[in-house]
Amino acid sequence: MLDTRRIRPDFPILAQQENGQRLVYLDNAATSQKPLRVIDAITHFYSHHNANVHRGAYALAVEATEAYEAARTAIARFVNAWAREGVVFTRGTTESINLVAGSWGRANVKGGDTVVVTAMDHHSNIVPWQILCQEKGATLRMVEITKDGRIDLADFGRALEAKPKIVAFPYVSNSLGTVNPAAQLSKLAHAAGAVTVVDGAQSSPHLRVDVQALDCDFYALSGHKMLGPMGSGALVAKPALLEAMPPYHGGGEMIERVWDDRSSWNKIPHKFEGGTPNVEAAVGLGAAIAYLEQLGMDKVSEHEQELARVAIDRLSQIEGVTIYGPRDHRAGVVPFTYGDIHPHDLATILDKDGVCIRAGHHCTQPLMRRLGVAATARASFYIYNDLDDIDALVTAVRKAGELFGVLAS
Ligand code: C6P
């Protein structure tokens, strides 16, 4: 496991108390905490290099542009992108998927076509496709999940019989923790003639990602879940696809020439980056990637998997606790319910002990319907969590059980 005694001091917020207790932050799937290296990178940028990018002819503007473009190179390296030109900065996974739906989708999906998603997708990888399908008169086909929380491969195969234009799925589920066989799904989808869109919101922070090995077409990620700033993220795509796609947002910087009635476009990735970008977010994300690379992504995932294993083991010993998701091939996400205690009540009670977990539908309402619950509680781990955090979680859950006098529903 990672040496959390060395990691934790890098995260100033973890030294803080919450409700007079040691802060036990277990909502990392929602957003991660930030190390000083990221916070300092942002401060340093504003203190020493701030200027608009790709515009200025003076040294400061060149420095700002270099810092911004260095972050692009870092993302490309981190996920083994096809080319750095295939990395488009966005505000995160949601915007990245909307970009694909709004540009590639609008240009290529027609009435009668099919778009495939899965029942474990986050709303960010469902709603943009619903909007597209409604606009085009296309069909949105949702692939079912198995009882143990995996994509049902038989149903996936049936969905591909419609020769869909797009197949979208999450690499890692935020509500189940399932790590999906993304390379296999992509291969099957390609054989059916589809382009593939991988929601990487929960994989980029926690696994070694190699988009070329996955051989997907589009890969979306959010910086704020991987130690980076809020509002940072990227769409990573095969350059040839980006070249052929129409722009998504019109404005400054994404053009080559503007006439009175029409324009021509800048080269990729700038064609998709109209307007002044969030340079501080890119710089912060570059610093976050450097931090994760120093730890090593294989060690990061081993650490979280071990924490999840221990948490599942210990929570399962509490009578009335139900854990959701598969037993293996899972990331550091532990969704559970406890008898008839509402997950929101559970989260509120745990907060009194300084334990932050998320409760709700986790933006996966179709999945919750299939699980037959309105909501779950969810503990999710990251590099600074340790066995003491699991002790605190389990103790607080037991305490909640005593308080509510609950046993199995
Ligand atoms: N899931 C969670 O608590 P944004 O908001 O664009 O950074 O990420 C959206 C998103 C897309 N896909 C998956 C699999 C996700 O988990 C998320 C964000 C958070 O689970 C907030 S709902």
Q: Can you summarize this structure?
A:
The protein is α/β, with parallel strands linked by helices and 409 residues long.
Helix content range = 40-55%
Bulk shape: globular
Number of helices: 14
CATH architecture identity of the largest domain: 3-Layer(aba) Sandwich
**What fraction of residues sit in β-strands?**
15-25%
Structural class: alpha/beta
**Could you say how many structural domains there are in total?**
2
Bound molecules: ligand C6P
Order of strands, widest sheet: 4-10-9-8-7-5-6
Enumerate the spans where pLDDT stays under 50 for 5 or more consecutive residues. Answer: none
Sheet having the most strands: 7 strands, mixed
Q: Examine the coordinates and then state which fold CATH places here, giving the name of the CATH topology of the largest domain.
A: Aspartate Aminotransferase, domain 2
Radius of gyration: 22 Å
